[in-house]
Write a structure and sequence with these properties.
Length: about 450
Amino acid sequence: MNSRETAVSGGTRTRVLALKILKEINQDGKYANIALKEGLRGQSLPERDVAFVTRLVYGTLERQIAIDTLLKKLASLRRVNPWVLNILRLGAYQILYLDRVPDSAACNEAGKLCGMHGLSALKGFVNGVLRNVSRNRERLLVPEPDLSLSEKLAFQYAFPLWLVKKWIADYGPEQTEMILKPFHTDDVSVRVNTGKQSPAVLKERLTRSGFHVSDGYYMEEALRIRDAGDIEANPFYQDGSFAVQGESSMLDACIVDPQPGEILLDACSAPGNKAIHMAERMKGKGQVTAWDIHEHRVRLIQQNCKRMNARIVVPSVQDASSCQPEFRERFDRVLVDAPCSGLGTISKKPDIKLRVRPEGLSGLSDLQERILEGCSCYVKPGGVLVYSTCTINPQENEDVVCRLLKKRRDFVLEDPLPWLPDALRSTVRGRMIQLIPSRDHMDGFFIARLRRKNGVDK
């Protein structure tokens, strides 16, 4: 094997592992983050090889729609063995998108992978397809001239064509391309446990321990750790000094604006980061009720509360999609961070765009509407209701809020600007916040703040 390739990637072992993980995601239905974490566990790989496996897996998934389109031009893939299909995807990704990996190495390693999976008879087929990819690389990467704008964007950014068309209809071509552009960072965003220490103190402690640490982009509680490794093994994570949380997610607590002594509800809480964040802002005075419909996810909230010493958070199993009379008008503030399509997190979870289907989006908006309407019953007169998702889909966002406002005349939409960091003021449209990853340097997120009027019947 080429010595340069060995130094960069760790050779065959890394590709064997990446292939196994890709097969688990594409054929066995595992989520990418879970499959990667489980696949790397116990491997004792050096950090550069962990990084290379991660790059192979996430890079292939990110580009898979375009890669499959190109491979179908060069060979019939209708009845191809799943292992062979993923070997071809992995090889094509290296040839088309990784300049530091020689094409010959990508082809040779693909042949080895065939042999290791009892597919030696197909080495010639795989080698021929990948060498054809290599010979025609420049031509293959250029969109065909007769494609429509939506087809060109779908190919260029490797997104489902139906979703690109939908976003163009919702946002227009310019905004759609901004949405499609990937946002990548090597940093891990964390929220400092301000009940334990200040961000400045934790930043200094992490830096002294050898970590590369920067301030957050927008949030005072946020830090960014580069080359964090296994973050859950970090001693500062284990002692509750910080939680892993994106800044877009931290904005929920800003917009809710919880006050000490109040009674709050986080209706779709697991893993509990938002509930704990609100508890920290309440200085440990009052109560945050944290619900999830699944018992195992409630246990996760409990574990995080214990680690972060969030004593005023009370987790429990509860279905937020229907109004429970015993909780009617009990809470000063209610946060509904609803289950959603997750389209705002595709840069971190590229397998989402391989799973999302048009029919799934309509089903989600129905569920979100039920949850938001049910939880509106729990807000005291004069209280606050905040609705958020991690998606970029008006049918799950603005449309859900507007339907509630038509049904509940006792709620009004509030301007979020008083609670929003100044640098994010431009993200507000129609009194609602929509974050876009490539523009705002964090996950795509939607937030709307509503207030229940005093003395007004529904």
